[in-house]
Predict the structure.
Amino acid sequence: MSAAAGVSAVPGTIHGALLDELWRESGAAAYGLDHEQFREILERVAAAQNFGLAPGALASRQQQVSLFRGLRLADLVLARSCACGHQGAWEHFLAVYRQPLTRAAIAITGSETLGRDLADQLYAELYGLTARDGVRRSPLDSYRGKGSLMGWLRTTLAQRHVDYHRRTRRELPLDDPADGYEPAAAVPEPENPPADLRLLGKAIEEALRQLAAEERFLLAAYYLDGRTLLEIAPLLRVHEATVSRKLHRLTGDLKKQILRNLQGQGLSKPAAQEALGADPRDLNLNLKKILQNSSLDAFQEKAAT
Amino acid sequence: MNTTPQLDLHPDAESLNAFAEQALAATEREQILAHLAGCSRCRQVIFLAQQAAADAQAPARVPADRPKVRFWNWRFAWVPAAALASALALVVTFYPRHSAPASEMAKLAPQSEAAVPASPPQQRTSAEAAHKPVPALTMKSAAGKADDAARRMTSQELAAPSAVHSAEPGTFGASAGVSRAFLPSSVESAPQPETAQSQPEPAVAAWQQDQQRSSGALSASADASEASQKSLRMEAYTAHASRQAASAGPRRSQQSQSAPSASFDIATQQQLAGSAAALKVNPPRLPSGLAAVSRATAQNLTLEIDRSGALFLSGDSGQHWEPVAQQWTGRAIEVRAKSVLSSSPATHIIFELQNDAGSIWVSADGKTWTAH
């Protein structure tokens, strides 16, 4: 049977032979999932991702088959069975993931106590102790099998930890000097900066906005977050030496672009170079805001609830 | 990109994890990167998850790396293993040359002691020490450069001459000194196998011919008198072997106790054979401490040349040695005794010394040498 024939002409309808093959490969029978339940899981995943295409785009048969073949079906079936409360699935989940999950939580929090608390809290959520409209809700239901289930669990733990950290930082008491917190001094009214500094700020902002997404991510991760080359390299799928070369080239190009922008604003070349040598502390620039605003078209940051 | 409402705010855990695991399509990946560039929270999430994954893989990496570590260690083990194999190959190559004489020495040890009752215990101890099998590597270093030529000979060539040579009934003339020098020390100092003395005559004759050929370069100056000596020696050996077959031990004791004779006849030769055999059973230790490369015995005089070319004279069958001042040029390599026909009824014995250039010096008493 050809791969293209595995999906029927109607989007979301999977051919019986392909469904049976995927059902056997996933081990769904071990958790009591029949073909119809398995088909429902796959169709929900396909609908949620639109077969990995942009919203509104129609997937061809080949794209549909490649999506199903690229899923981690065993993890997906386990997660959905756990979300449905299957006892055998939970036993398997605990046997395989409990210890790694606790280790990951400890590594993320940097504390055994906090890590165990975080892991227990996630367990409670995964088990569906929280109910909405009388129905048990499990975060496992949102797992769609794109990456590994363990990776998904780690990322979920990290999200919980970061959100908790941000939330608790915002709740710091303002009048407790013992914590080392001092109220911010009154921000002085910004003076009118010199004209060359204003031009420089504008040139920098324009240059940063013209950067590609990967370049902005590189600058933000390295200069703002202080991540190492070794940490950044796997995310960009390159070697750390390549990250170093990219950074070197990027800063050089950025400097040239700023010079060009300054000259485009009417400064001579010597004047532009002199403006570039200004003390950065004199600049009134919020790089975080500039980089962040560059991606407003994709997502908008919002405090986690 | 996921169309769930949550993605309008932040990518969900599924998308972030898929991005970290490189499981996203290019378009989705670009969107996630664009978000990550401006979202410190998601960057923090993804780096924390990555750090946890690295920590989780660290213990699991140990068993995966163990085979490599073991293999690496075994690679170092190849060096001593190869050295051991080389040493074993050397031992296997050279051991057959020693095994046959050593086993015969063990069997014939009581007979040798019976044959030489007069040898002092100290000499026997030194002789036994000398009879110990020498490892191949030690033998190589002791034999020196001269052994290179001998190593080219097969083990049969080495074993046969040593057995038969030691069975040679103590000719008064020069033994094949250079050939003996080629032999390993253990073979050279091995006791005379009694069984070899009763070997059939054709075998001895064949070996003597081989010996003559092998030492042809050094004995190229053999003259007619040497030929006559050889025939005499053969006759003497024939008579000696027949008598040895009848009564070996007791007669040898008598021979060692009998007084040396000045005349060169069969009886004298037998007597010399006894003393030569005693010398071979208990090889004399030269004052230089070096092994002898050539030896000549006539009447009551024994001359030996050591490896350095120094000549030593003994008047008591090797009990005491005195060095002979060098009166020849070059390096002495061989000494032999010759009978010279003279007008007097008694046969006159002279010694001949040959240097490494092939020149000959002669002496009647072993002390004073004149160019021939």
About this structure: Residues 122 and 156 of chain A are 8 Å apart (CA to CA). Chain A touches chain B through 60 residues (CB under 8 Å). The first strand of chain A starts at residue 131 and ends at 132.
